[in-house]
């Protein structure tokens, strides 16, 4: 892996992965700056070159995990970058996806109910993302900035609460991508669908890196300041940190050909039992309720859920619900809670 350094030029960075352009824009560079190198750009704009290189290298080299030996950066610099990213999502990406979805709907001739169901899922995702951003902008970032400037901070709040509650907003994007792959057949305008899909995939990559910067760079930098001020850990119950394993890759399982000798069901296909679990999950039953209904243990339900996720590539409950409706496993009227979709 050849990491970029202070002598690397903008054109070398763009040539490695042109999807990096929006990230470069957040640092005030991009197209037209090709011959200049990192050192010159950072010196002119007052950007810390180590932070610039960290962001660039993390994005381009998916196996680069520098968090362990990364120095702590000033939270205001990290937050400035994160805020620019939020603005980019709100002002550019989401309106672009909205527009593409509207176009897909307007030319849709068949199975429009499937597409409008996926649209509903997308709208729900968008609301969740905007709430997520608002919480960071109004609660987390102001706390970190106040702490950095030595001001009094809201009593009791610590960055460990953000660390524990920080949700995986990219999970539903991956589900949306899988729903599109499974359901947007030749009956739809393929060019529009492809365009939407590419935009979504780029967005997912950006959001995944954004969350990683928050978790692995912002949180440790703020914690270092808390320690300097001798802040005690937040009192009360903070749930365990959100699971971020496998953040980058959500793959469907490799399906081996042939059939299961016992059940006669195709390997890799959804089994009858899994279909039953999907039906119950999609209509709003909890793990415990499903275990009681099917006379199996919670552990067995969880194992089935994991297998379903591996086979479908869909993890969120609303994603499973959309899948179940489109596949005819449930009827929309069966859903017990409006929150599901
Ligand atoms: Fe964020
Ligand atoms: Fe976030």
Describe it:
The chain is mainly alpha-helical. It has three domains: 10-66, no CATH class; 72-228; 272-340, Winged helix-like DNA-binding domain superfamily/Winged helix DNA-binding domain (Arc Repressor Mutant, subunit A, Orthogonal Bundle), CATH 1.10.10.10. The protein has helices at residues 10-16, 21-26, 38-45, 49-60, 75-106, 112-148, 159-165, 170-183, 190-228, 272-283, 287-294, 298-312, 317-326. The longest helix is centred in the middle third of the chain and has 39 residues, at 190-228. The radius of gyration is 23 Å and the shape is globular. 27% of the residues are buried. Residues 240-257 have low confidence and may be disordered.
């Amino acid at each position: 892996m050849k990491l970029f350094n202070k002598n690397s030029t903008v054109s070398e960075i763009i040539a490695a992965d042109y999807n990096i352009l929006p990230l470069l824009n957040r640092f005030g560079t991009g197209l037209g700056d090709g011959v200049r190198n990192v050192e010159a750009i950072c010196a002119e704009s007052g950007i810390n070159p180590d932070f610039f290189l960290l962001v660039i290298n993390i994005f381009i080299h998916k196996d680069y995990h520098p968090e362990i030996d990364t120095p702590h950066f000033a939270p205001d610099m990290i937050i400035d970058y994160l805020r620019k990213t939020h603005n980019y999502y709100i002002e550019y990406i989401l309106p672009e996806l909205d527009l593409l979805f509207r176009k897909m709907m307007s030319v849709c001739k068949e199975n429009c109910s499937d597409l409008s169901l996926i649209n509903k899922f997308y709208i729900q995702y968008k609301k969740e993302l905007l709430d997520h951003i608002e919480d960071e902008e109004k609660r987390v970032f102001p706390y970190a900035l106040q702490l950095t400037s030595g001001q009094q901070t809201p009593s009791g709040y610590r960055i460990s609460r953000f660390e524990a509650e920080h949700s995986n907003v990219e999970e539903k994007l991956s589900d949306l991508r899988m729903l599109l792959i499974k359901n947007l057949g030749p009956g739809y305008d393929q060019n529009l669908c492809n365009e939407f899909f590419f935009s979504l995939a780029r967005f997912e990559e950006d959001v995944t890196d954004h969350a990683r910067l928050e978790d692995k760079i912002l949180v440790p930098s703020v914690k270092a300041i808390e320690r300097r001020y001798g802040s005690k850990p937040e009192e009360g119950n903070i749930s365990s940190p959100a699971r971020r394993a496998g953040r980058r890759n959500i793959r469907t399982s490799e399906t081996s050909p042939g059939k299961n000798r016992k059940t006669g069901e195709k390997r890799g296909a959804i089994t009858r039992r899994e279909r039953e679990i999907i039906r119950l999950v999609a209509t709003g039953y909890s793990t415990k309720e499903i275990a009681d209904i099917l006379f199996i243990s919670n552990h067995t339900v969880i194992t089935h859920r994991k297998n379903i996720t591996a086979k479908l590539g869909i993890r969120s409950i609303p994603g499973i619900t959309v899948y179940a409706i489109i596949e005819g496993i449930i009827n929309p009227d069966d859903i017990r809670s409006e929150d599901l979709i």
